[in-house]
Design brief:
Length: 275
Amino acid sequence: MSFQVYTPAYPLHRFVRYFYSPTGKLPYREDKVMPSPQTDLKINFGDGFVAKRAEGAGTFAIDHKGWFMGIWDQYHTVVWPNDPDFIGVTFWPGGAHALMGIDINAVHNQFVPLDAIWGSFTDELRERLYEAPGYQARFALLERLLTARIDRTTKFEKIAPALSALRSGHAVAERSFTQKHLISLFNCVAGVPPKRLARLYRIQEVIDAIDQAHPIRWTAVAQDFLFADQAHFNKEFKFFTGHTPRDYLNRRKRVITETPEHAVHTRLLPTASDG
């Protein structure tokens, strides 16, 4: 099982990285979801989901209609329904604020029901998408509906150059604001301050860059991604993913062997209970 993925056109692509939808039952009952600088929402048409915080810090059901997920500092675990049927939207940093108008920092490490954000529009959206004939029609309809909601971009545009710099791996060189004002804007629009967003980008880049087909020298990885030293890299990796680099690699290799179509989704890692 994999996902159908669709990249929306301009202007929506400035705010939305892609839409996605499952093509059948997922191969693992539970997946760890690795942290990312992006936020995410799901419009659900099937059974409900269950999520678990890192290190067993709490289990909670997610609203069956749909939900918005803020930025998470650490991994969380999702228990998939037996027959998943949903559309997901992955936003670039700042994109959800531009389309939904909410303070992204207020939903940090949280799932929020969509109707708490969009009210009656949530039911209208679900009904229209559910009636669309297939995922391609759903994607096209969702693109039109979200494009029509691009109307809260004032704060986004203020920090768009800084967001672009971080996305490209560069330091923020914004001189138009005081440091305090810049952090306040980032918290509201992107969900976290610039330094935390840069750390999330870096750990995502590390995970995406790991090539299981060749021997990996972790000291070289630490150097390539500008960690202070090996100990710093190990600490950051364990904090964000819940695994040591070696343990993570072993688990990722297992997924490549068992379900290579699932392995391409680098943010998803089956839990040990699925072994």
